[in-house]
Amino acid sequence: MSNPVLVCALRRVDAFRALADVLKRFTQCREKLSRSGSLLQTVMALTPEVTFRQAILFFTDTDFVNGGKRRRPCIPLTLLCFSCSEGESQRCRAESLLTFLQTGAQVLCTVLLIKPGAWSHNLARILRKLHLEKFSVVGMKHTDLEPDVVLGLLSPEVKQDPAVLEAHCTYLTSGTALVLCLQRPNAVKKLMDLLGPEDPKLAQALDPFLWRAQYGVSTVQNGFYGSKSYQIAVRDVKLFFPEGLCCSNCQTLEEEEV
């Protein structure tokens, strides 16, 4: 080939279907791209077996990363071989990549804060829902939120409007909140999918079974706060549970410790 190519190894839940959907949408606008002289050709592996064979051709095990900063590679270091012969090196390389591709979703921690007034009468049902969604509760505490903590939890959009900011701060400091640290594979995204939009009316329109649709009454009193990303989840766990969690240490949290 006369032109260079970019090879990417991508990883996510339901990766093959998700990437195929993205490429399908991209193909729909391909004619527009071709008229501008920047036609982009794409090829994707369609099965795990093809992915494995192609990964061996393009990558070494040290090329892979596993997410946020300070995170170690997902491949166990015991599988790396630095002093093999050429034939053995290829075999060890294949074994390391196969181990990486077979590694399942990591167990992560996230934080669910049940806002004042939302948990006192609904805690049993909420805990039941968490159990059905395969969450493990590895930390739980009552807390009276301080204003500086509340500011750290609110989004930049909320802070831009003084009236909205005051409403959130007044409500969140008006009573005792219940904070849960939850653990399961893909915990952060799963929790956010269950909570739904911060506006309960929008959540109700999307799906009446979303938690904010069931327990929220307004954008301020919407029942729940949940960590929106892995980095925020790590911050929230350290903020609310500095004494530790009632579970074996989570590898991902250990890797994020300063």
UniProtKB/TrEMBL annotation:
Pfam families: NDK (PF00334)
Gene3D superfamilies to which the protein is assigned, alphabetical: Nucleoside diphosphate kinase-like domain (3.30.70.141)
Annotated Nucleoside diphosphate kinase-like domain residues: 107-248
Family: Belongs to the NDK family.
The name this protein goes by in its record: Nucleoside diphosphate kinase-like domain-containing protein
Organism: Chaetura pelagica
Record lineage: Eukaryota, Metazoa, Chordata, Craniata, Vertebrata
